[in-house]
Write a structure and sequence with these properties.
Length: 241
């Protein structure tokens, strides 16, 4: 795929885009409060069934008199929502855009990508993706920012924003034993498939993606399926960054 023309580089102040931490926290708190309010109703409904799971906990819960029961479950829901909200806000993506680089910050970690290393940027589902001139995936991060606002900000600073992955047609679905992969990539994809089955192994799946990129294999996910393509470089076909 040929190199895209580089748009003119405008000057101006850097743009910082970040999700509102308070909005995230308040949304999670509201969801927790609703869940807490509905819990007593669910417990009572379970006890009307001839056979129901968690019958013992449901009986224990409904033995608490009102309004203490509902007030207590709502309080627990609010507390859970508060903890979830702070975690979600801490894990949200913020994007810094200037004429010289793009900075992605998650938690307390930042990645800086010089402008000359970025070919195109695009949205893939709920993820922001940065590609280099050779098609190497530089970054793929979950993004909760307004997409149109993000696209406009990149365009204002002269970056090439596209509507979809220019290499999308090159992806192939992975199945165990798929031919054409570099040595060791099939084993990494097997391990990653297992890691993606467990939410607690998200960090492991992320590290395995990085290992695949080092082999020159770009991975994208669709539900439980993995798709892959190779990065081909002049004089170093199949090697990753």
């Amino acid at each position: 795929m040929g190199k895209r023309p580089v748009p003119p580089r405008p000057t101006g102040r850097a743009t910082e885009l970040a999700e509102s931490a308070w909005a995230i926290v308040l949304f999670c708190v509201a969801c927790g409060a609703v869940a807490g309010a509905l819990l007593p109703l669910l417990a009572r409904w379970l006890l009307t069934l001839p056979w129901a799971p968690f019958e013992g906990p449901a009986e224990l819960l409904t033995s608490v008199p009102e309004p203490a029961l509902t007030l207590g479950t709502v309080a627990v829901g609010v507390l859970g929502g508060l903890l979830l909200g702070f975690t979600a806000a801490h894990d949200s993506l913020s994007v810094g855009i200037s004429g010289t680089q793009v900075t992605l910050t998650i938690r307390d970690s930042s990645q800086e990508f010089p402008r000359d290393e970025i070919s195109v940027l695009f949205r893939d589902g709920k993820q922001l993706v940065l590609l280099g001139p050779d098609g190497m995936e530089l970054a793929r991060e979950q993004c909760g920012l307004p997409w149109q606002r993000l696209a406009d900000a990149f365009a204002d600073h002269g970056y090439a924003w596209v509507e979809e992955d220019p290499y999308r047609a090159e992806f192939r679905r992975w199945v165990p034993g798929t031919p054409g992969l570099p040595e060791g990539a099939d084993a990494l994809l097997r391990a990653r498939a297992q890691a993606r089955k467990h939410q607690d192994d998200a960090k492991d799946a992320r590290e395995l993606r990085a290992e695949l990129l080092r082999l020159g294999v770009v991975v994208r996910d669709e539900e439980k399926r993995q798709y892959w393509r190779l990065v081909r470089r002049a004089g170093a076909e199949g090697e990753g960054a």
